[in-house]
Amino acid sequence: MSQGLTNSEFRAGGTDLSERRRSGVSRGALADLKPSPAMQSMSWDAAGAASIGASTSIAAIARDATIADAYPGLAAAAGGLATPQVRHAATIGGNLAQRSRCWYYRSPHWSCLKKGGSDCPARAGNHLYHVAFDLGPCIAPHPSTLAAALLAYDATVTTNQRQALSIPELLGDGSSGRADHLLRPDEVIEAIKLPSPLADERAIYKRAISRSYAEWPLVEIVARAVIAGGAFKFARVAIGGIAPVPLRLANVETALEGKPANTGTIEAAAKQSVQGAKPLPMTGYKLDLLQGLTHDVLEQLASSA
To answer: Which of 113, 304, 115, 206 is nearest to 123 (CA)?
Structure first.
């Protein structure tokens, strides 16, 4: 999950690390994490808020009925990523701390910012699957699906060194280009804490992919809403696969809250989803996908009221 003081790389589920070791991108000593029982379990407080140990498998989160009832967007995101085999081995902490999927980073034959290089070769090269919100020197989208879901739920992260880190505090704002997360040396994620679910809340997760199975998302979205009296009383919308970090769509939320849950509101809100975007020459198509996904999930939320 980060580099130790002895320059060893931590290994938990190992699904991402194993691939990087095979390609030669990751070298050197490994330090296997030995999780405590609390890091492998889920617990609930009296108010119904969940704490999920960082070594809990993604499959366990996806199939847990209590999680699905309280945080349906998180459960759906967990169930939608990767393959059953990967979900069984991968952990929520590892998903948050995984490394870039950019093919230049993954190749041992290229230097890039995330490997200590001086520039981002994807800018002048093939960046078909890269960002459409250009926030910094590196244009690789952040790889964590669960980070986008946890951002939508205002979750916080506890490590062995710090408490209550927000997702932006854990991952940064995308402006540095040299790191996928801001964990310190020898810092390990221990738990993810979620606030109590809202009464009458509903949520939807949806992704656009280039193949029908086992593919990384081109764009993904988690939308939460409370709809009462025919109007959006609360809205949270977070996106992934389209920027160096997961993003909250505050413009969309503002366009929804207090407005009627009807076609006009949804269309206007969906148009706000692309505000602030800076697509690259090859990634403009992602904005069409984003606007379409936003419209679809909001329409589904409204129709289920």
So the answer is: 113
